[in-house]
Amino acid sequence: MDPDQRPVDLHLCRISAGLNDRVRLTDPYVEEVWSEFLGPTATLLVRRLARTIEERPAGVQLDIVDVAASLGVSPSVAVRAFERLHRFGVAHADLDRRVVGVSGFAPVVGQERVFRLSEAGRVAHERFVADLDAGSPTVGRATEMLTPPQPLFEPRRGVVPVSIR
User: pTM of the full predicted structure?
Assistant: First the structure.
């Protein structure tokens, strides 16, 4: 997106987590591992987006100028941070349509990127993956996967829900 034509308002909405999304965006893994690829601005941004969507699951309007100011950067830097989150698959950002989607989860850093991590990042990644493989209930989505999801609404008999576009 052209920085001179950046959106002013964005709609933040909750999206479904992907099959490989095993890390809470508020987990230390995001800061200790993902930040090496995302950079500090995008890392702080995604953590704030995750907290916002947890507090307001129906979604919320974001003013890009306010978001940028709260991060201590210019609006063009904030736009690039949104684009970076999208490029790495940590969030969905369609800035042309002024929509940002966050599930609250991210994938574990892929093997193709692990070799680029610092020693501390590699150790954090390996520790986290080992905990996932061991089935630690405190890591990632394990707790959510043990609890059945609550329906958003109770469908009435004979009523077929319409898909949202």
Answer: 0.77
